[in-house]
């Protein structure tokens, strides 16, 4: 412990080894994931995001929605995500392969949104933003300052969030 | 591994009367006070935002800041965390780590202006980052929320402001080293590495898909453990034997604690991703690492609590302002380590996932341990640097009781509330609205706690600023009360 170089070398390894083993090998395992068909000759998923959804994602990030909403459905046995109807199957890494910014989230003050586009929701997002009390989700913050174009983009983004298609990994996990 | 100081007491301080002591402290005065004053200003700002965040949470649909774009719950939370962590936590540890290693290494700081330049750059970048967050330019990744151009500036500012403890270690005149020095050198060297790598893979050249989440979890674990945890441990290892004037129980184990702490901490990140769409082997690695962290936690508990539980240690700690805060922090560290190890396992982790429980565990380390230790250290260091005494003993009491009660109240709300919410969430028969209703019953307690913390921080700031303003003597005539 007298030697500064030994100390620094040890600390360097303490940072570099987990980085290599967790992050870089994670990248080498998952970095090549792209669109794939769940069945032979089937359609390729996940779908590409429409342009308006890309704008909507920016609104979602800018408002800080991720601080209360997650976008991940856990497998049965770990929480009640599927039983609650958040999704029809657990999320898999491929679902996020095309997303430039992955917003898994860490806290659920509101419901999960990973499969929002495929769920039937009684709540109208536009009303939820402008007048939460009359939308049926009175606890939701009001965002009246969001203009109509941004609201439309946000709705398009939420509608684009779907994890109801088959994919090679999801089939296995089912 | 060699161990050089078996006595378990800080050895760097020369006998009383040695002129170098005052020269060491005089040379630190400028940079220390810049870091300290900035830290306290940010702490106050973060505390006000903490109250706003609690009010926002308690009345999401009709709060005071309803429909105000700058104060959406997400933006306030991001700004509050940014200010608390990078404003208070970093500035305060810049000051304390520099003071600690200068003391232990008898380091006379001749290039204080460089550290001050770094401090100014750090605070300017932080101000810019927070304004942008309020304006809605968040990244979406917690604790990396500032716009990406802030990252490189913070990294360079860190090298100017936070790297000096390593220089102090390298230039120490004696061969002796002490646990505090290892932890500070480790924290100061590790931060720029993991911060820049995380900036690169999350913000500048984002990794593909969920690898961003893996990199982010790795970063958060490093930030909490290797910066906040290690810096706080350095102070605990210094002040406990120093003020008690005793050796630490089982101090010969400290090198094992240091190495196991640093070697396991970086692997614990994916424990926060149990159940997420990332490979199972990654999740399992995180869980195993979190369980392995029990090794350093237990050794540190033997060193710290072993000392406090013998020869009336707790009584003496309670009667000394510095040690009262520091031993509170040490107890919080042990609790954080134990709970972190247990709640990393799949079943308990699945139960409390996505609830406030995670925030509770994090705050146990960042506030309960690191911040309380920083408060305790301030009561020791400031009188020495300013040559003045703390103006008001009442404010010291207000500070301790408001922060201790406020924190414990918030902790109960986070942990018990999180556990309760987790149980309700796990039962699909309970409607989501009912889960939220149960959770919101804790928001009142969180608001009261946030107000108490603000009161405590204001008391601390008044006392500290009063003391700094009154002080005119440059060094060492003052003693801590």
What's the SSE blueprint?
The complex is a heterodimer of chains A (174) and B (481).
Chain A: H1 4-30, E1 36-37, E2 44-45, H2 51-63, H3 125-130, H4 132-135, H5 148-160, H6 168-173
Antiparallel strand pairs in A: 1-2
Chain B: H1 19-58, H2 73-105, H3 112-134, H4 150-161, H5 164-170, H6 179-204, H7 211-244, H8 254-265, H9 280-292, H10 294-308, H11 313-318, H12 321-342, H13 346-352, H14 357-386, H15 393-426, H16 432-440, H17 443-470
Helix pairs in contact in B: 1-2, 1-3, 1-17, 2-3, 2-5, 2-7, 2-14, 3-4, 4-6, 6-7, 6-8, 7-12, 7-14, 8-10, 10-12, 12-14, 14-15, 14-17, 15-16, 15-17
Written account of the structure:
The complex is a heterodimer of chains A (174) and B (481). By secondary structure, chain A is an all-alpha fold. Chain A has helices spanning 4-30, 51-63, 125-130, 132-135, 148-160, 168-173; strands at residues 36-37, 44-45. Chain A has one domain: Cytochrome Bc1 Complex, Chain D, domain 2 (Orthogonal Bundle), CATH 1.10.760.10. Chain A is built from 6 helices and 2 strands. The longest helix of chain A has 27 residues, at 4-30. Among the domains of chain B are: 20-176; 311-481, Up-down Bundle (Cytochrome C Oxidase, Chain A), CATH 1.20.210.10. Chain B is 73% helix and 0% strand. Chain B has helices at 19-58, 73-105, 112-134, 150-161, 164-170, 179-204, 211-244, 254-265, 280-292, 294-308, 313-318, 321-342, 346-352, 357-386, 393-426, 432-440, 443-470. The longest helix of chain B is centred in the first third of the chain and has 40 residues, at 19-58.
């Amino acid at each position: 412990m007298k030697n500064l170089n030994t100390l620094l070398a040890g600390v360097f390894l303490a940072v570099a080894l987990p980085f290599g083993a967790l992050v870089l090998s994670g990248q080498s395992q998952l970095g090549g994931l792209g669109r794939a068909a769940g069945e032979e000759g089937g359609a390729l998923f996940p779908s590409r995001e429409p342009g308006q959804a890309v704008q909507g994602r920016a609104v979602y990030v800018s408002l800080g929605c991720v601080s209360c909403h997650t976008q991940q459905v856990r497998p049965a046995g770990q929480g009640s995500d599927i039983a609650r109807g958040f999704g029809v199957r657990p999320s898999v890494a491929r679902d996020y392969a095309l997303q430039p910014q992955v917003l898994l989230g860490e806290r659920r003050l509101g419901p999960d949104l990973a499969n929002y586009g495929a769920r039937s929701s009684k709540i109208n997002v536009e009303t939820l933003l402008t007048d939460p009390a009359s939308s049926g989700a009175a606890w939701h913050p009001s965002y009246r300052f969001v203009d109509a174009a941004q609201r439309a983009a946000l709705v398009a983004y939420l509608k684009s969030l779907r994890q109801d298609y088959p994919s090679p990994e999801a089939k296995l996990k089912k | 591994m060699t161990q050089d100081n078996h006595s378990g007491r800080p050895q760097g301080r020369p006998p009383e009367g040695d002129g170098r002591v005052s020269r060491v402290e005089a040379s630190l005065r400028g940079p220390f006070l810049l870091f300290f004053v900035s830290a306290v200003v940010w702490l106050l700002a973060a505390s006000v935002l903490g109250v706003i965040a609690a009010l926002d949470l308690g009345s999401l649909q009709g709060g005071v800041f309803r429909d105000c774009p700058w104060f959406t719950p997400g933006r306030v939370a991001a700004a509050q965390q940014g200010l608390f962590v990078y404003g208070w936590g970093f500035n305060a540890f810049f000051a304390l780590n520099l003071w600690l290693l200068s003391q232990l290494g008898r380091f006379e700081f001749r290039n204080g202006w460089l550290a001050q330049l770094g401090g100014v750059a750090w605070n300017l970048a932080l101000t810019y980052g927070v304004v942008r967050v309020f304006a809605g330019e968040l990244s979406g990744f917690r604790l990396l929320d500032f716009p990406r151009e802030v990252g490189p500036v913070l990294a360079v500012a860190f090298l100017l402001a936070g790297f000096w403890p390593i220089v102090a270690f390298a230039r120490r005149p004696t061969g002796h080293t002490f646990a505090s020095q290892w932890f500070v050198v480790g924290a100061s060297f590790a931060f720029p590495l993991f911060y820049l790598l995380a900036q690169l893979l999350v913000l500048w050249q984002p990794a593909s898909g969920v690898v961003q989440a893996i990199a982010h979890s790795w970063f958060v674990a490093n930030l909490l453990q290797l910066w906040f945890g290690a810096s706080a441990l350095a102070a605990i290892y210094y002040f406990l034997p120093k003020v008690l004037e005793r050796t630490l129980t089982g101090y010969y184990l400290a090198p094992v604690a240091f190495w196991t702490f640093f070697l396991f901490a970086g692997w614990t990140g994916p424990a926060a991703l149990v159940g997420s769409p990332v490979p199972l082997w990654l999740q399992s690695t995180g869980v195993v690492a979190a369980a392995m962290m029990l090794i350093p936690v237990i050794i540190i508990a033997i060193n710290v609590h072993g000392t406090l539980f013998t020869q009336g240690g707790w009584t003496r700690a309670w009667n000394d302002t510095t040690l009262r805060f520091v031993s509170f922090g040490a107890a919080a560290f042990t609790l954080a380590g134990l709970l972190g190890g247990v709640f990393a396992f799949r079943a308990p982790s699945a139960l409390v996932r996505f609830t406030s429980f995670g925030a509770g565990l994090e705050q146990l380390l960042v506030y309960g341990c690191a911040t309380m230790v920083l408060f305790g250290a301030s009561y020791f260091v400031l009188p020495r640097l300013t040559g003045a005494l703390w103006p008001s003993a009442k404010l010291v009491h207000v500070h301790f009781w408001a922060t201790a009660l406020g924190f414990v109240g918030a902790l109960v709300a986070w942990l018990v509330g999180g556990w309760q919410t987790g149980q309700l969430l796990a039962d699909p028969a309970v409607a989501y609205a009912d889960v939220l209703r149960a959770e919101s019953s804790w928001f009142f307690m969180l608001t009261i706690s946030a107000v108490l913390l603000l009161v405590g921080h204001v008391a601390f700031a008044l006392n500290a600023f009063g003391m700094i303003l009154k002080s005119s003597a440059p060094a060492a005539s003052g003693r801590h009360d």
